[in-house]
Specification:
By secondary structure, this protein is α/β, with parallel strands linked by helices. Helices cover 45% and strands 17% of the residues. The protein contains twelve helices and twelve strands.
């Protein structure tokens, strides 16, 4: 099961880390942009090619250190069709490198629309009796705001194709509490969603005892993370908010179970844009991939130190 493959990767590399491949014009080194602008003009197609090369460089540098990557689709959609091609090629390349790919797509709708989203990212489209994959990620992030009608089509596709999802429960952004912390019958909404995640995932449990239906809980809310860890003991938690958003290793302890498993921590800008940070500035733009590798090693040590406690 895909959740077992993710856990095996975490254990083998001793790194409960997923790197967010979230490229922007500000992060892609200028020398790469100029390379493709010279060949193709200052066009979306050129930027898309720069992004693909950037992502491949990053992936080559970190593939032996981390079990998974998480491309955020919005960064690619911004370029239109060339960007979507870059997304597809990035997913494909990362899978070739043996990495688990978490598509950060935050989809959520109802009925046939939700099923189409699920098929497009985690399943197959059938034409003339043949099945064709869509973007072919291993996991996708899902917005549960529309309720079970929006989530169950994803779970169905996951069961059919050995895929997984991470459901938004308590997100890392500052305004998440405007809705997620609202009380319903004396309890915050995020707790009720967490209980639903545990329920939804009960039938998709792997050999390690964890479900392929996980949850997204931000590192910026460690107290809520502790509560949700207890409510969802068998659901993996994807933890954004480390690094650039302010989360640090000490904030992560409560997201893990006593077996040292149960959570995977995301860092995006802090890794892929490490060459822009003072700590890694000596690598320079041309050494962006080596800077990312160094940042992953530092992150791994930070988390290990915190968990060793």
């Amino acid at each position: 099961m895909i959740i077992d493959r993710l856990i095996d990767g975490i254990k083998a590399k001793n790194a409960p880390i997923v790197v967010g491949l979230d490229p922007t014009a500000a992060l892609v080194p200028e020398f790469l942009q100029k390379k493709y602008y010279k060949e193709m003009g200052e066009t979306p197609e050129a930027m898309a090619e720069a992004i693909v090369e950037y992502n491949r460089g990053l992936t080559d540098a970190i593939a032996d250190l981390v079990p998974a990557v998480k491309p955020q689709i919005a960064m690619y959609e911004a370029l239109g069709l060339p960007g979507m091609s870059a997304f597809e090629r990035t997913v494909s390349y990362c899978r070739e490198k043996g990495l688990v790919v978490i598509g950060d797509v935050k989809r959520g709708d109802i009925g046939s629309t939700s099923e189409a989203y699920a098929q497009g990212h985690l399943g197959y489209f059938e034409i003339g009796g043949k099945k064709f994959p869509g973007f072919d990620e291993d996991f996708a992030t899902v917005n549960p705001y529309l309720g079970s009608d929006g989530v169950k089509p994803f779970i169905k596709v996951c069961a059919e194709n050995d895929r997984g999802i991470f459901v938004l429960v308590k997100t890392s952004n500052p305004s998440s509490g405007e809705f997620q912390d609202r009380t319903i019958e004396g309890r915050p909404l995020y707790e009720l969603v967490g209980e639903k995640v545990a329920e939804w995932g009960a039938e998709l449990t792997g050999e390690h005892g964890y479900s392929a239906v996980g949850a997204v809980v931000g590192a910026t809310y460690p107290e809520q993370g502790s509560i949700l860890r207890k409510l969802m003991p068998k659901n993996y938690i994807l933890v954004p908010g480390y690094g650039a958003q302010g989360g640090k290793g000490a904030d992560l302890v409560n997201f893990f179970n006593e077996d040292g498993l149960g959570a995977i921590v995301n860092s995006s800008r802090g890794i892929i844009g490490a060459y822009k940070q003072e700590k890694y500035a000596s690598y320079g733009p041309e050494g962006y991939a080596d800077a990312a590798r160094a940042a992953v090693i530092d992150m791994r040590e930070d988390i290990a130190s915190a968990l060793a406690g």
